[in-house]
Amino acid sequence: MNLAQATVLLWVLGSLQAFEIVEKENIFQRTPCPAFLMFDNAAYLADMSFELPCHCKPEEVSSVVWYYQKHLGSGHTKVLTDFDGRVLTEAAQVRVGSDMLVRFSIHMFSLLVFRAQPEDSGLYFCGTRKGDYFYAYDVDIQSSERMVATFEDQGQEPFADEYHGSLRVFTTFWEWTPCDRCGVRGEQWRIGLCYLQSPGLSPRYRKTLPDVVSCGSRAVPRQLRAKARDHVPELLLRSCLVPCEEKKKIQEGVMALFSYVAKVGSRPWLPPVPIQFHQQRLGHGLIISCPGARPEHAVAWDKDQQYLYHTQYLKGVNRSMRVFIDHGNHLHIRFTQLEDRGIYYCWRQGVRIAGLRLGVTSRGRYPVSFSNPEIRAALVLTLIGYLLITAVFITIHLCRCCCYLFRCYPNFSP
């Protein structure tokens, strides 16, 4: 490419970028802000990341500030802003349990919240530093702790709708995910969140369907929300089988040709995906995450040539499982044993993307920390065991004392 062609190409790219910016500004010019502030209802599952766009703002406003309130009119308001040189947060740097103030970013007037938790449920306002609000959301983050899995292949069906007078509680399912594996039998699922329909909802909250909002919405009165408390989110799963893309087959053929050309005996082992090595101490727990995966993605796990299907390894299928997959697509290994050694492969959206070679060793000391949930659980179980043994010991001695007293002092009454 000569200099003239490169100059023309850069000019075209610059024109397209300027056109895109003008288009974004025209959107705000065409969308007037409502005279009366309304709340858009939005529901998500815990550990998901979501975006709240600021759909309208005055033309003279060049930057926005987002505000958060737990309840409408509450005295405590969190100010979410990227001013004063604050570094934008990246999803890969966010840890579970972090405060919301370190789990958000503002990009092109939109608020990005990473790994949302049920405590993040509430009202979000788009406005200025002076406290003028333009747009607002009613966000409901539903917990996945009591999520129920339904397997279509086993003939199971989702929850039936519940009726409490004029109140209807039901599950709204998202679209099916892609098949989590290709070339072999895989699985796909859809997430279902709790919604309700009632004529007694607050008119200040905007709804996609008449009188329908998520169960944790601030538009639901407290007495109605209590009736929908037992309707938990659902996970609907079924089997699937899709072929792999032709590009993958071509790459495998090229790798086979390279292996054939290489000298016998000096050919190195070429993994199909990037492999990370990890050494784990014997008897301690491990949690493995799939790179770039989110709870709404189709994620699958394999150990060497063994497929870890959700019908057998999903959390809650069997309470005594030592190896299981949680609802956030993480692979858990409790009390690591020697047979856990191997390569764990991760599939994301039907493509195998990474692997972890796990080694287990019994050497070395493990630092004791009460912040470790496994150590706390072990201490609680030990304390409960001592209490049970003490209770049995005291009960036995009380019974012996009672028997001794009745034997030594018989009843002489006629």
UniProtKB/TrEMBL annotation:
It is a single-pass type I membrane protein. InterPro entries: FAM187A/B, Ig-like_dom, Ig-like_dom_sf, Ig-like_fold, Ig_sub, Ig_V-set. Residues 268-346 form the Ig-like domain. Residues 1-18 form the signal peptide. The chain crosses the membrane at residues 377-399. Keywords: Glycoprotein, Membrane, Signal, Transmembrane, Transmembrane helix. Its main location: membrane. It is found in: Membrane. Pfam families: V-set. GO terms for cellular component: membrane. The keyword Transmembrane helix applies. The keyword GTP-binding does not apply. Belongs to the FAM187 family. This is Ig-like V-type domain-containing protein FAM187A.
